[in-house]
Amino acid sequence: MSVMKTLIRYSLDLVLGSGKAMRIRTSQFVLAALLMLASIGVLFFMKSVGIGGMGDVRLWAACSTAGLMIVYALIRSGYSLRWADPSLAFVQMLFAIACNAAAFALAGDGRGVTLPLLAVILMFGMFGLSIQQVITVAVYGLMLFAEAILFSLLRETERTTYYLYGAYYFMVVIVLASSTFLTWRLCEMREHMRHQKLQLTQALEKIQQTANYDELTGAANRRHMLQLIQYESQRSDRSANPLLVAMLDIDYFKRINDTYGHQAGDVALQKFTKTVQEKIRVTDTLARWGGEEFLILLTETELDVGLICLERVRAAVAADVVKFAGSWISLTVSIGVTRYQPGEAFEKTLTRADEALYAAKAQGRNQIVCLQQSADTVDSMPDISKVKAG
Ligand SMILES: Nc1nc2c(ncn2[C@@H]2O[C@H](COP(=O)(O)OP(=O)(O)OP(=O)(O)O)[C@@H](O)[C@H]2O)c(=O)[nH]1
């Protein structure tokens, strides 16, 4: 049974291709080919039962089949991939309409059966063709059927058949006009849906941005940072990789607001964020923790390396100036850093970072203080190492 299944799967892969896109193209082709083969069968049947006035059906069938084989070879070999429409839907439609018009001319008294097929062929184009292509198909169809009808009329002598051919042509016009109108409506609906999808994607991106990032500075917000902290602390527990947390607070920020105004303070916060982000690694995250307080999460970072990075941040902020309304504003930052101890509640890590920051402020600001263990767990003597005096 499984051998049978494998054999069927292998045969299908061979005939239809294994990739999803190729499968869609070849399956569409198979559907169109089945329609063509059914038409060939019907014409041979009519010929065999002696319906009058039928032309050379065999030549027509040979040309139609050869055309089908060429289309299949182009799609299945992947050659059609170099064109804008690899499924060759437009080309297949033009070819099918030509075969249909030729069948109309050849079918003699049985020509009536070919017209419903024209409607089916046009249905194939409704979902994929552009409106320009459909108009081209309609004009092309009108021309080919006019020729087919003229060709048939040349062999007619009775006057009443002129009216009958007039009625046939009228039906061809109706079928082509209706399919063009319906395809135009479908194109409009597709365009509308594409536009709505784009708007939804943009709205979703905006919501995600607002949910995770601070509007003023573009740094991660507290909520997003808490999620990252949970993820990274669990990872650190498992891998034993060091995880550092640094709390940053801009020094005397109130003075900036008071001296230059709140807007200047906002610009300073934006500039500060940019400067810090330029100095940390892409794998580290800067978040606005609140007001003028920020947090940096340094993943897989040993303390000595982290201190070098933070010193880079401190120095860059101190060297920077914020230009606002003709004023040059200088900033400094105090930083408290600590290492996450595997298994501990992260609140404890944050408290330690806060204690280190407090110490940095108390010791004169514009400096980094590292606190490796909490003040209340080590004989009430915090292991505070001052890294850089301001
Ligand atoms: N412009 C602006 N100011 C803010 C924002 N958030 C907080 N602040 C201000 O930041 C200032 C923080 O002041 P403080 O907490 O007294 O601290 P500080 O002046 O920085 O002094 P130290 O931290 O002790 O060095 C307050 O004036 C807040 O109004 C903001 O989004 N924009």
Automatic annotation (TrEMBL):
Catalytic activity field: 2 GTP = 3',3'-c-di-GMP + 2 diphosphate
Organism: Undibacterium aquatile
EC number(s) stated in the UniProt entry for this protein: 2.7.7.65
Phylogenetic lineage: Bacteria, Pseudomonadati, Pseudomonadota, Betaproteobacteria, Burkholderiales
A Pfam match: GGDEF
Keywords from the UniProt entry: Membrane, Transmembrane, Transmembrane helix
Keyword field contains Membrane: yes
Protein name: diguanylate cyclase
InterPro entries attached to this UniProt entry: Diguanylate_Cyclase, GGDEF_dom, Nucleotide_cyclase, Rev_trsase/Diguanyl_cyclase
GGDEF domain span: 241-373
